[in-house]
Amino acid sequence: MIDIPIETVTATTANSIEPKTPVDDAAQRLRDPDVPALVVLEEGTVVGIVTESDIVAFVAETLESHPVETIMSAPVTTVAPSESVTTAARRMRDDGVTHLPVGRGETYCGLVSAETLAPYLSRRRLEIEWHAEPVRIGRTGESAVPTEE
Questions:
Q1: What domains does the chain contain, in order, with CATH numbers?
Q2: pTM value?
Q3: Where is the CBS domain (predicted)?
Q4: What residues pair up with 45 in beta bridges, in sequence order?
């Protein structure tokens, strides 16, 4: 596992909106494949986050247009730029989120996602194909490595 500060893998794009932004405007922005989530900022402070799943849930319930603040997830789980990738991944897992706004104090610095962090974390299970003879563990005094007889 590579344990590096989160600021080295933070997306620095300005994918942010204000709480009063209409939901249909947020939905249009989320159609861009390079925009995984929209961080909701109020006077530069992270107050929420809106993802595609928030839009889908909203549309499933109503067809009316409302401001983003009615569907954003809040309060928001965040991470500081100096915290490690491991800390960010643990926070995502513990809070059940896939995107974390990165902030220094109340200043928004960027966004990381589970996809962004994946290359920096070890996999729990490795798929290993073994093409040699199986290792046999013998009794005391016997070789653990197969021998030719």
A1: 6-120 (3.10.580.10)
A2: 0.54
A3: 1-65, 72-128
A4: 42
